[in-house]
Specification:
Elements lengths: L1 H18 L10 H7 L3 E6 L3 H14 L4 E6 L12 E7 L2 E2 L2 E2 L3 E5 L4 H8 E6 L23 H17 L9 H18 L6 E5 L9 H7 L4 E4 L1 H9 L5 E7 L5 E6 L4 E6 L10 H4 L4 H15 L2
Parallel strand pairs: 1-2, 1-3, 8-9, 8-10
Antiparallel strand pairs: 3-6, 4-5, 6-7, 10-11, 11-12
Helix pairs in contact: 3-5
């Protein structure tokens, strides 16, 4: 009986480590965040000029926390057992030659097996993971997130800013941690910011028969514009200040954010997993009524509509 319990415990731990891997916006423990502030941060040079230019521009404008060193992305693996550096990189793993949960991630690389759970300082989910939908375009590489790399890097920095400025102590990452962080982040935005209302821009790729544009309009009462994915990426890539940009990530469980290029800040983070972290097809790749209603309420509040 004892052996059975031990085996079950191991299985549960393995499942938890796989399912929870990329749920952390913030560190699992404040210890790792404090350690991060003493490191040199390595930044990937991808060889893609448009990506590298945006990486340098965004970090030079907003990064103030550690010294930076730009390193060819293929050389970052040389630092996987080093604990005096932190790394900004796409953080992914493979299972049966398929991409697993992936994020733009800031982490301390020492003990790489543990990194996915405890050494993560900040992570921003992207559209990459197990969806198995034929019409779902996964963004699992730097060349695929080129159009929004400025947003993702700024959101990564916003996590650090929040922890420092709000004296927020990362704890109980994953479900409890991310819910706590997002709740406090959104509350701060509602309490401090009053932004000029703009048309919300979103891609038609965000919809399916469960949440189509007609249903979206029913729950989102302000102006919005739907464009195809190509035009959406072109507008986001232009860093247009004309719109509020809605972004969507299928992992974990369809997180949405609203970004304003005029303020260069995230105005809202919307979750879709409440108390349950487990990914389901229905959660993974669509907007839902509660999400849209919460989005509407938040944007109305900060724009005075």
């Amino acid at each position: 009986m004892k052996n059975i319990r031990s085996i079950l415990t191991i299985i549960i731990c393995l499942l938890v480590s796989e399912v929870y891997a990329q749920y952390s916006y913030t560190s699992y423990k404040n210890y790792w965040f404090k350690k991060f502030l003493t490191t040199e941060t390595l930044v990937p040079i991808t060889g893609i000029q448009s990506v590298d230019n945006k990486i340098r521009e965004t970090l030079s404008e907003h990064w103030t926390y550690t010294d930076l060193r730009y390193v060819p992305v293929d050389d970052l693996d040389d630092y996987k057992e080093t604990d005096n550096v932190s790394i900004i990189n796409l953080f992914s793993y493979n299972i049966n030659n398929a991409f697993g949960n992936t994020s733009l991630c800031l982490y301390i690389p020492a003990n790489i097996d543990e990194t996915r759970l405890t050494n993560v300082i900040a992570s921003v989910p992207i559209k990459c993971g197990f969806s198995y939908k034929e019409n779902f375009e996964a963004e699992c590489g730097f060349e695929q997130i080129d159009y929004k790399i400025s947003i993702l890097l700024k959101q990564l920095i916003e996590v650090i800013e929040f922890v420092v400025n709000e004296k927020y102590k990362p704890t109980l990452a994953h479900v409890t941690g991310i819910n706590k962080y997002v709740e406090q982040f959104n509350h701060k935005v509602k309490s401090i910011y009053h932004v000029k209302y703009k048309t919300l821009l979103l891609s038609d790729d965000f919809f399916n028969n469960k949440m189509d544009p007609t249903k979206f309009k029913k729950y989102y009462k302000l102006d919005f514009k739907i464009v195809d994915e190509k035009e959406y990426q072109e507008i986001v890539n232009s860093e247009s200040e004309e719109y509020l940009i809605l972004t969507q990530s299928n992992i974990p469980n369809n997180i949405i954010t609203v970004f304003d290029f005029e303020k260069r800040e995230t105005l809202y983070i919307g979750l879709n997993f409440a108390k349950s972290p487990f990914t389901t097809v229905s959660k993974m790749s669509r907007l839902n009524r509660k999400q849209v209603k919460r989005l509407n309420k938040h944007i109305q509040k900060i724009t005075g509509q």
